[in-house]
Amino acid sequence: MNFSLKAPDGTVIDSYLKDHKEFIQIAGMEYEVYCPVDEFDSDPEVRQMIEASEKDLKQGKVYSTEEMVEAIKRGEI
User: Are residues 77 and 47 in the same domain?
Assistant: First the structure.
């Protein structure tokens, strides 16, 4: 898993292997990845949640942060 991402605020996130371990670097700080994404994605329960989320997105079932905060305040979530 080697990738480089640029966040909206301009922060660059790089991933790389070092000593046969996976790491990411954010703003110059190095972090070891203990549960690589491919292992996480292979979990059947996680895979099911991802697929359900993708289906919701395609159907337009999306909520703003404000809507979610209000639902939490009302005890709906």
Answer: yes
Q: What radius of gyration do the chain's Cα atoms show?
A: 17
Can you give the pLDDT of all 77 residues of the chain as single tens digits?
677 888 888 888 899 989 988 899 988 899 998 876 777 778 889 889 989 999 999 999 999 999 999 999 999 98
* Alpha-carbon separation of residue 53 from 12, 34, 50, 70 (angstroms): 26, 24, 5, 20
27 neighbors 16 (Cβ within 8 angstroms): no
pTM for this entry: 0.43
Range of the domain at 65: 43-77
Domain count, the chain: 2
